[in-house]
């Protein structure tokens, strides 16, 4: 039976109700703003950490290349976020001193919440893909307690955070986000992947302001004309055909659902609320009726061309919806876009996050240090104590045989991944087998690459952390 899983409306604590409206300006002309959140001075902290690390660079460890990457290869710097059953922190790889984000998920909690299959599927997908507008996986490993994913570190915060901070995104800024996400979604389609959870929470900005798609926890792979059928996603961003398929059966849905979500997100960034009044507790039956009776309202302040593009993304019938890069490129709103420059991140974003602060809730670090019963910075000592305690127990006396069987299965089936090592081996292989190219051959290859780059799918491979 297909996995039927509906994520809550938002997994972050800083989301707001879709009925939210920006407050009108008072008579004085000054806008009412909420109290500022505590500022974490990221630039000062980064400078302090850099000085600390440089002073110890002479003692930089050298790890055996044959050794699998593990928790000891990283220095934990600070917590920056959490999801329904995972947490995220900034780490630095001890040998290269490169900075990453590390997501870690407690094995026992994953078993208890029946999330192991989702974690394994996310790992399977991330290990096979790489793109300039995705948050790419670099390492995966495990220990007795947790599963770890080490990914690109993006310090600009997610779009949900900036919406909650009352950032007003211009048309030009949203236009760039649409282009960058269209590039990412077209690449995912070429890899047979439906993301199923495109929303502001899952779009992270780098320090320059470019958008990257993250969180493949409920993504799925479909091949050879297959269709997805599960009720999966975040309700306010889910396409009509997902609800229709769940309610009435039929042929299911495909890649078009991600492009609907892109349209909802673009509308929300421009206006401050979503095009449909949908909540996590909205009945599926009422949503099917909603899409057939309620039309989206567009403000006259927007240009006619962007309204036309949003209409094509928010078309209820998936057969008539824009759902590929080729479709998007026919839009008059994007006629002047240089797609080569988009893929090379040469287009300057209209919104650049403040480099002087860390764009996340500062209470994540306090929770990790004070409230967390198993803090990450005490893991080594805790695991050693647990190992000593386990050795003194009678192994036949298990408090929960089923749980232990599940944990053993995770330990056995988990796939360790090292993109750094993979890239090195690929480079060495290419150097050893590639014959010298003639000038004509090199020109032909360059022309072919430029042609592919215009479609912005497989060519937009990642250049590393941004």
TrEMBL record:
Keyword Disulfide bond applies: no
Comp. bias (Low complexity): 457-466
Transmembrane segments: none
Lineage top rank: taxon: Eukaryota
Biased composition (Basic residues): 377-386
Stored Gene3D superfamilies: Phosphorylase Kinase, domain 1, Transferase(Phosphotransferase) domain 1
GO biological process, any: G protein-coupled receptor signaling pathway
Pfam families from the UniProt entry: Pkinase
Requisite cofactors: Mg(2+)
InterPro entries (alphabetical): Kinase-like_dom_sf, Prot_kinase_dom, Protein_kinase_ATP_BS, Ser/Thr_kinase_AS
UniProt entry keywords in alphabetical sequence: ATP-binding, Kinase, Magnesium, Metal-binding, Nucleotide-binding, Phosphoprotein, Serine/threonine-protein kinase, Transferase
Acidic residues bias: start-end ranges: 438-448
Renumbered residue ranges of the record's region Disordered: 1-28, 377-400, 423-466
Protein kinase domain location: 74-334
Enzyme Commission number, as recorded: 2.7.11.1
Compositionally biased intervals (Polar residues): 427-436
Binding residues annotated for ATP, in chain numbering: 103
Catalytic reaction list: L-seryl-[protein] + ATP = O-phospho-L-seryl-[protein] + ADP + H(+); L-threonyl-[protein] + ATP = O-phospho-L-threonyl-[protein] + ADP + H(+)
Gene Ontology terms, MF aspect: ATP binding; G protein-coupled receptor binding; G protein-coupled receptor kinase activity; metal ion binding
Membership in a protein family: Belongs to the protein kinase superfamily.
Protein's recorded name: Serine/threonine-protein kinase 32C
Protein source organism: Salvator merianae
Taxonomic placement: Eukaryota, Metazoa, Chordata, Craniata, Vertebrata
